[in-house]
Task: inverse folding
């Protein structure tokens, strides 16, 4: 009888732990899937930081928000930048600086600079994404001529892009630091607050939940087995 009660208690605790984990992770899992299509409704509710208006060298390079996200079953980091409304939609160059080893420096060979050249046109946009290491050495072209931003007719404010974990040289759940800046004349015009993030391969969530439940059940099984030996 005692063994049955222990099993019931173990399963009850496993269920409670599972419910707590699901409650903790459900906001992230409930977000829309990010699609690079120059439509930005799927960014609603995603993690982001905002930046004050008027702190850039000029209006066209004045950033107002930076978003980041991952999709289920993908090892790609997605990003979105927004600048001041009414900037007349000129071309803009952004640098996403990534401290991949989380050591406080962005200048190491293993670090990354993702350069985004966004040029809004009347009815569409062209977005070029290039990848460099922390020293500025060119690594690869991620995208060329993609229509991943708002057109001039749409306001020319927002642009999105994605980079695979492999290109960034990171693994799922690895902690990184990152900062988005806008460029002007070879220097920084505006910068958004530094962000620390652990990009999740969403395949990991079901595995973590399964391991948690299995671990709790195994713990109570061991306790019951040792109790019988006594």
Result:
């Amino acid at each position: 009888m005692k063994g049955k009660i222990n099993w019931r208690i173990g399963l009850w605790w496993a269920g409670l732990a599972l419910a707590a984990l699901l409650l903790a992770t459900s906001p992230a899992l409930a977000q829309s899937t990010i699609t690079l299509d120059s439509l930005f409704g799927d960014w609603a509710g995603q993690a982001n930081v905002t930046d004050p208006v008027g702190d850039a060298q000029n209006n066209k390079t004045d950033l107002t928000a930076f978003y980041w996200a991952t999709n289920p079953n993908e090892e790609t980091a997605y990003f979105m930048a927004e600048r001041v409304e009414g900037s007349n939609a000129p071309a803009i160059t952004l640098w996403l600086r990534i401290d991949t080893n989380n050591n406080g420096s962005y200048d190491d060979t293993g670090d990354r600079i993702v350069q985004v050249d966004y040029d809004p046109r009347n009815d569409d946009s062209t977005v070029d994404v290039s990848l460099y290491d922390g020293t500025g050495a060119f690594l690869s072209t991620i995208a060329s001529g993609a229509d991943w931003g708002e057109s001039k007719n749409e306001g020319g404010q927002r642009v999105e892009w994605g980079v695979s974990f492999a290109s960034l040289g990171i693994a799922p759940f690895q902690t990184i630091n990152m900062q988005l800046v806008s460029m002007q004349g070879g220097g920084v015009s505006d910068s958004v607050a530094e962000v620390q993030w652990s990009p999740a391969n969403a395949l990991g969530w079901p595995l973590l939940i399964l391991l948690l439940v299995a671990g709790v059940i195994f713990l109570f099984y061991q306790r019951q087995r040792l109790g019988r030996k006594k």
User: Anything to note?
Assistant: The chain has one domain: 35-201.
